Amino acid sequence: SAAGGHEGAKHTFFVSQDCHPQTISVVRTRGKSMGVKIEVGDEFAADLSNACGVLLQYPTTDGRIVDYSKVIEKAHEGGGLAVMATDLLACTLIKPPGEWGADIAVGSAQRFGVPMGFGGPHAAFMATKNEYVRKMPGRLIGVSRDSQGHPAYRMAIQTREQHIKRERATSNICTAQVLLAIMASMYAVYHGPEGLKKIAKRVHALTTALIMGIEGHGHTIVGCEPSFDTIRVELEYGSLREICDRAAQRGLNVRVFSDETIGITLDETSTPNDVLEIISILTSKGISPGWSVAETVARNQHAGGAKFNLRDFGRTSEFLKHPVFNTHHSEHEMLRYIRKLESRDLSLCQSMISLGSCTMKLNGTSEMFPVSWPQFSRMHPYAPREQWQGYAEMFKQLEAWLAEITGFAAVSLQPNAGSQGEYAGLLAIHAYHASRSEAHRDVCLIPVSAHGTNPASAVIAGLKVVAVECDDKGNVDLADLTARCKEHAKDLSCLMITYPSTHGVFEVDIQAICKVVHEHGGQVYMDGANMNAQVGLCRPGDIGADVCHLNLHKTFCIPHGGGGPGMGPIAVAKHLVPFLPGDPVAETSGTSGGVGAVSAANYGSASILPIPYVYIALMGGQGLTLATKYAILNANYMAKRLEGHYKILYTGAKGRCAHEFIADCREFEQSAGIKVEDIAKRLMDYGFHAPTMSFPVPGTLMIEPTESESLVELDRFCDAMISIRNEIREIEQGKMDRADNPLKHAPHTAGMVTADTWKHTYSRERAAFPAPWTRDHKFWPSVGRIDNPYGDRNLMCTCPPMDQYAS
Predict the structure, then answer these.
(1) β-strands 51-58, 81-87: how paired?
(2) What is the chain's mean pLDDT, rounded?
(3) What percentage of the chain exceeds 90 in pLDDT?
(4) Which residues contact 480 (CB under 8 A, 6 or more apart)?
(5) How much is the pTM?
(6) Which end of the chain has fewer CB atoms surrounding its CB within 10 Å, N or C?
(7) In what order do the strands lie in the sheet containing 12-16?
(8) Are the C-beta atoms of 140 and 157 separated by less than 8 Å?
């Protein structure tokens, strides 16, 4: 409510001191950049009348399950919202946030079967009441229907996407951890509600036994509230250092709080032997003869567990009632269900995916292997440094390689998405200005062709966006840029620019552009989305940029995974090094000359960094340079093949593009009634994913082949595009009807072409098998065309029926 800048908006957000320290660090960073005052303290004693919201941890960072009903009532009375950060596994047993009256619930899905991975990647979640659904970031999957009247899912409420809102965006979120969300969801599908509760009950039972064992051996449990899986121990005897050393020697880490109490957490992998081990570590006297974990659990259950059970916090409502969570509980059934879903997705396994600016390239098997190694996947993000020397060496080498590739002085691996890299880079620039007593510099110049995340990131970083025009060749208009620099010279913070440009050309004036910004006191932020056209040929640091983020899930081969995981580290010039993101668990984070933490883990999604590490190590300088050359060559080859059929919108001085190009499809709407979306949908019948549609220019296709595709595959895609152009010509020449033709009714499902009746003037064969390769191997779209809410067709699109399957 504060970010909107409305009159009367509340500008204070209260964070409970019982939240995790890394959470507090990230919230402080975000609040500072957005002009929101962050107060941290005791929520029960705090005055929340002037707070726009309150963040509560449930269970708390030291494991207590607390009744927050009074706090939530107090927040609501003051006109604020209540946010509860929670744990999914705990919520299977304890009363969920919504039943306490919370407005929003957030957390990590890591607990549902995803490795720790030294901090990531993990899927976060955000749930809210119906009245706030349209204020959520990103897009939601809505229930719609296809052209045959069959149910279908689609991305809905896309008007909130940052590409549309741009400088009015309230979020710059672009990359989501989709692959990890799938892992967590499949964990829930396999175990179902009863299986999840069984796991949670076992964890809680072991925790209860641990509590009783520790107290029975002379130590004190801090707090009288019930616990689910985490406890805090006050040592009544023994040396803290000795106990920590003893734990480390036995392969266990404990959390040490500032008051020298100890935090211990159990999970589904914990065993009764682990409980015995922990108790033996905490006591120098040895475990009492005859003391048994199993007997302790049994005694506690028989006595009703008056002191340690969940009491009034127990969950009584049902969850995961949808049949999918109550069906696939054998390994065979689970495997078949996953394979069924997989068969509905078109991926690089079937054909090239030529999404412009998304760089969908080969993910080599050798690059992927290390991700599953336990030394990487099972490392805790806050383990003592001496336990992750291998990780440290990889970080050091990867940072050095990326710095050399970009021509910068240092690299931070903390941002775990490209959009977060943009945010971190802009924070570094602002902190640099502030260090020179120029914190008033808050104007960010952004070309109209920029990615939508650019203006969205600028807004989130607290900057004011001023657009810069482009010329008719797609380049930044140097005269307009100069005029904007002069106009805002006193307040100019930076320019955000993509090189090569989003229009697919190398800006011929890029060095002059950097120079004019510097002359007016600004910094140059280079969006690294198109770095696949630079590596080995030129470097942002040499060109004149001050900071650049890198999409490791694009240029450096981390898989896109349906939208994530991604990594967006930033590389900076020497003068910006002091302003790189800080340690999220350090007490000084956000209070020194740095910018605080942008991610809850110091190295972001660390466990996927072996992928770019292996990629760079295997390719070497020569291989990386050759890959860049092939990426540019492939794009120019395709552009030349298609230019007689489609107008190539932007090219450089020599008539060539960079690593991507834009095919203009706007003329077909007048000549044949065909829109660019019709071409995109018809490509499905040919077995191809459509290129990026209507960005950065409406009515166009932005095509990027990358270096990974063979000449055969490039030609196959070009043949499909040319064949579609010939179909459009038949419409233009009157040989096919403007309304009843393969493009207007694409994609064609197996059900459509095998139906008893066929009402179209073109044949079933032409609909389903438009190219020779479709007879050899056919990818069948699982749903037909879904109505476009922004076109001239009717749309039924709603969020999933939330009352049908309570969750």
Answers:
(1) parallel
(2) 91
(3) 79
(4) 468, 469
(5) 0.93
(6) C
(7) 37-41, 12-16, 51-58, 81-87, 104-108, 124-128
(8) yes
